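Dear support,

I submitted the protein below through the web form. The confirmation email said the job was done, but the results page showed an empty box. After a refresh the structure appeared. I'm attaching both so you can tell me whether what I see now is the final result or a partial one.
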Amino acid sequence: MTKNVFVLLFLVFTLSALAFAIPEVQVSLSATTATVTTKLYKYSVDLKEGVLQNEYSVFYENVHSWENTGDGLVLYYEGKPLIPSGWTISPTGSGTFHTKSNVTLNFFYNVNGSRIEKSVTFVNNPDYEVAVSVKAPKDMTLSLTFPTLESNFNRASGDIFGSYYSKKGIVTFSSLSNGTFSNDGIATFSGNLDAKIYMGPVKNTLIFSVFPQKYDVISNLIGTYPGSEPWYSWFMYIFVAFLNWLYDLTGNYGWAIILFGVIVRVVLYPLFHVQLKSMLKMRDFQPKIQELQRKYKDPKKQQEEMMKLYKAEGVNPAGGCLPLLIQFPILALLYYVIFYSREVFAYNPQFLIWNDLSVGGIKENIVLLLLIVIFTLWSSLWTSTKPSQAWLSAGLSAVMEFIFIGFPVGLFLYYTTFSGMQVLTSYVAAKIYHMKGITWRELFGMNPKVQWGDKKWKKHSKPKV
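What the results page shows now:
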């Protein structure tokens, strides 16, 4: 019966993971402006001029990232800006409407009897991608301005243009299928043009999803932007790639994060093992230390005798600190790897009860917070000598997790997995070293349960009268 229940639960979880839910795009139209808001950004477009006006990073607290200063996809012919004679939108709609597809604005121009069409497509994906195309006669030379950020670090390399805004930590890259860029972000071309734009944080995994064929050129451009990436980014991207590989394997970042946490915990187990051995040795050593403290009242003499005792017994009181110090930067880096991936979490399929692993808050994380506290309490049973120690560990865990309750569900899911693996590794260590901690009954102040074999149960006969 139990086996069937587990199989049923697995099927339910698997089916829920396959229910792909693409976030909706909101489109608001007025007589003069179109505003397109995806999960990541919000663009406003001047419909009369046919140009981009503003860009806001919705995903990062609605930060105003860019404003048009003549660089908003303005189309030029013979040095003069072109004004569209009309426009259309796909999918069609009016007022404010929602869609899960890409949104394309088409602008039409008449130049000396020739028809020109410019299309701007806001792609509904986690890559901050905008696609641009121009259809014009082959013998007509045009210019198109591309978004340039407020920075001195503008670079052009043939068909690639990039700019960096150090104050807000964002970058823009644009790529052309035809034509060349100048250092001020103006592309000159003849005939048709296809282009892609990325405007978002400096995240290589997202940038190269938009420009997979331009890795070397864009990598060199990023290298010219001082401070655009942390010094450890090359190491971090190894783990980001591994997490993405797990996603390709499972089809859902929820399962990928869980596998990631399990693998990390297994890899770090040797360090935990060393730390635990040192802790157990110190715990067994406590009676001898207490004896010294009773015997010698002078603090200086106490210290001298303890050092002699440590040396004689081969005990290092700081032996458990080194494995912890090694683990800390690794765990901090891995937390950042999960935090780094929030954009792709926003486009992740439904996972169990969560339809968005990129958001945080009490409502989204309360179940995971409770699980973390339970796991912390559970793993503390084997290492604690009295209930107060276990409760203290659980209390500190609850306080720390509540402080960070606004962090993404994906990060909480990782830490929940890590805490669950802590229970397993503590159990394994308890079996290896015959650790005697406290029981659940003792934890809640109940009398220890009498075990069979602890007493000889005898059948008493009736008392004689």
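Response: this is the final, complete result; the empty box was a page-load delay. The chain has two domains: 21-228, 249-443.
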